[in-house]
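Data deposition worksheet. Section B asks for the primary sequence of the deposited chain exactly as it was used as input, without tags or linkers unless they were present during the calculation. Section C holds the resulting structure in token form. Section D is free text for depositor observations; keep each observation to a single sentence. Incomplete worksheets are returned to the depositor.
Section A, Depositor: J.P.
Section B:
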Amino acid sequence: MPRKIHDGPANGTAQQTLPEPPSDRQARPLADEWWQARQERQAMTTRLLATFTDTKTVRRDLTRRRGLIKLLDWLEQQPGDTWQDRWPASGADAAGQDWTDPILGSDMRRFRRDELIGGLPLLIVGQVIRPTCRWLLRQRLALMLAEARQALDPEGLARLEQHAQDTIGWARSDAMNKLTWIVIHKGGVVADITVGDCVELTAALEEHHFRGSAGRPLFYALLKETGILPATAPPRLRALRIEARPSIEQVVDKYGIECQPIRDLMVDYLTERAPDLDHTSLRSIARNLCRLFWCDLEVHHPGIDSLHLAPEVSQAWKKRLAYIRDADGNPIRPRVNFRSELVFVKAFYEDIAR
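Section C:
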């Protein structure tokens, strides 16, 4: 069966489909549950503290112990049957780098940020929870990645690192981080990684504007050269990324624009600009114009069908754009690149006016 770009096309939007990739190029689905996510609290706490604390680092480990206990207290208050169920339900995963805010906001007197940051790696490396790639890519937890490499698949990861010993240090480190992210997020070991997992991670890096890192394919080369990926896998990741690129119509239609003339205008505009842009830049502009600009207007002004906006409509949109918002539209934090996002829309208006 072909897979839909989005579930249920919006009114006036043609439904677009992409063929399923070959089975050996699909990303592994996330497991519904695993034993660590269901482990009873006392047994799990004992396991984590025995594995990830050391008498040589008493002060650090005291902070970790406190953080772990407080995190578990808090997660137990969230809905869900497993620890993994409770993690996204809490809102912490969706908050990205501000994941401690929902917890601190619940009881500022009890929780301390340093304790929470110290305790969470135990839950992640201990496979009690598996955060999304979006969350993982927003963190700066170097110690957690190092511990994950030692705990989750030390032999498999060490073998790949040894294979990369002649590469420059920063490139080797970048590759090992990517492989570790995949193992943390998907579970299993390095030998379980698929071509689709690699494409999925690269897409996540591009989506979150880590374009430099997304273009470093050493991690894929290590998997290919050591025989972890099948012989049928392309020798280079770039070939897969080009194959997987959707058409401009598919890029636009995934946002579900309801007004057909505006949808068609977006397609025409991006098609005209495409020869001068790489695909990542094209998708970035589409995201800005389709999701951040027009789809936001359709949500707040149902039935809108004109780019000629009243001053109050334009000002209200700018105020909404100024903040990153959660799924319910509530502001989470100021948008750092607010001004640059406005430039895309201004350029769009100037271009179509010519």
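Section D:
The chain has 19 helices and four strands.
The chain has three domains: 31-131, 142-244, 248-352.
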